[in-house]
Amino acid sequence: MRRHVCASILFLSLVVPLAAAGLPTARNLQADARQAARERLPVLMFFYANSCAYCKEVENLYLEPMYADAVYRKKVIIREVNIGSKRALRDFSGRMTSDVAFARRYGVSLTPTIKLLDAHGRELVPPLVGVGNPDFYGSYLDAAIAAAGNKLHEGATLRPAAFVRVP
Question: In which domain, by residue range, is 44 found?
Answer without folding.
Answer: 2-154
